[in-house]
From TrEMBL:
<dbReference type="GO" id="GO:0004141">
    <property type="term" value="F:dethiobiotin synthase activity"/>
</dbReference>
<feature type="binding site">
    <location>
        <begin position="109"/>
        <end position="112"/>
    </location>
    <ligand>
        <name>ATP</name>
    </ligand>
</feature>
<comment type="pathway">
    <text>Cofactor biosynthesis; biotin biosynthesis; biotin from 7,8-diaminononanoate: step 1/2.</text>
</comment>
<dbReference type="Pfam" id="PF13500">
    <property type="entry name" value="AAA_26"/>
</dbReference>
<feature type="binding site">
    <location>
        <position position="50"/>
    </location>
    <ligand>
        <name>Mg(2+)</name>
    </ligand>
</feature>
<dbReference type="InterPro" id="IPR027417">
    <property type="entry name" value="P-loop_NTPase"/>
</dbReference>
<comment type="similarity">
    <text>Belongs to the dethiobiotin synthetase family.</text>
</comment>
<feature type="binding site">
    <location>
        <position position="50"/>
    </location>
    <ligand>
        <name>ATP</name>
    </ligand>
</feature>
<feature type="binding site">
    <location>
        <position position="16"/>
    </location>
    <ligand>
        <name>Mg(2+)</name>
    </ligand>
</feature>
<feature type="binding site">
    <location>
        <begin position="170"/>
        <end position="171"/>
    </location>
    <ligand>
        <name>ATP</name>
    </ligand>
</feature>
<feature type="binding site">
    <location>
        <begin position="12"/>
        <end position="17"/>
    </location>
    <ligand>
        <name>ATP</name>
    </ligand>
</feature>
<keyword id="KW-0093">Biotin biosynthesis</keyword>
<keyword id="KW-0067">ATP-binding</keyword>
<comment type="function">
    <text>Catalyzes a mechanistically unusual reaction, the ATP-dependent insertion of CO2 between the N7 and N8 nitrogen atoms of 7,8-diaminopelargonic acid (DAPA, also called 7,8-diammoniononanoate) to form a ureido ring.</text>
</comment>
<dbReference type="InterPro" id="IPR004472">
    <property type="entry name" value="DTB_synth_BioD"/>
</dbReference>
<keyword id="KW-0436">Ligase</keyword>
<keyword id="KW-0547">Nucleotide-binding</keyword>
Length: 234
């Protein structure tokens, strides 16, 4: 995969830390990495956004943010309210393709979920992924309710002819409840794609050097890691 799009089943579920872990694992394999954030919302000018957080945690990656809107809203709404141009899928695809000529891996981190609107036409991250012909990694919650949300997302991807290599749990709790433990087996069966990792709760608070050292252990070999879902089942 030279370009991997990262989406989620909603907001605040660990997309950024999952992107950082994937970047760190790729860097540990000696790959050059770029991270593209098409639309950053809810962050004022001059403040660090999601791309900067990936760079802080993962290390020496190329960072590119196409647009920034101050209110924490869907990109289309945030752009309209800010009186700024929206991000278009072809702009995302063009930026990612250019980065891919200079890097081994380009990670494109979306805002919110897969079908959050980019612009007034209803274009979404899925449209950018289609233009790129890129696979889409899904980040999901660990616990109750995640089976439905994750399955809806993977079904939407299949309906659009998009490849989904798998699901990563964006925040695995230190004391997992029954639902989370059962979801280790149920998520692949429900979503139709494999579980490719689980990021431990609190990972963003780790010192960056420790985060980078541990990240490959949170992700499956498909994502340059060494993780095995049997660890969670145990």
């Amino acid at each position: 995969m030279s370009v991997l799009v990262v989406t989620g089943t909603g907001t605040e579920i660990g997309k950024t830390v999952s992107t950082a872990a994937a970047a760190a694992a790729a860097l540990a394999h000696g790959r050059s990495v770029a991270v593209l954030k098409p639309a950053q919302t809810g962050v004022a000018e001059g403040e660090p956004g999601d791309a900067a957080e990936v760079g802080r945690l993962a290390g020496p990656v190329t960072l590119l943010e196409l647009a920034r809107y101050p209110e924490p809203l869907a990109p289309a709404t945030a752009a309209r309210r800010a009186g700024r141009p929206p991000v278009r899928p072809h702009e995302v695809a063009e930026a990612a393709e250019k980065l891919a000529t200079e890097h081994d891996l380009v990670l494109v981190e979306g805002a919110g979920g897969l079908l959050v609107r980019f612009d007034e036409t209803g274009a979404t991250l899925a449209d950018a992924a289609r233009l790129l012909g890129a696979p889409v990694l899904v980040v999901a919650h660990a616990g109750l309710g995640t089976l439905n949300a994750t399955t809806l997302t993977t079904e939407a991807l299949r309906a659009r002819g998009l490849e989904c290599p798998g699901v990563v749990i964006g925040s695995w709790p230190a004391a997992a409840d029954l639902a989370a433990r059962c979801n280790v087996a149920d998520l692949p069966e429900s979503s139709g794609v494999p579980l490719l990792g689980a990021i431990p709760q609190g990972a963003p608070a780790l010192p960056p050097a420790e985060f980078r050292a541990q990240a490959p252990g949170w992700l499956a070999p498909r994502l340059d890691g060494t993780w095995d879902p049997a660890r969670l089942a145990a």
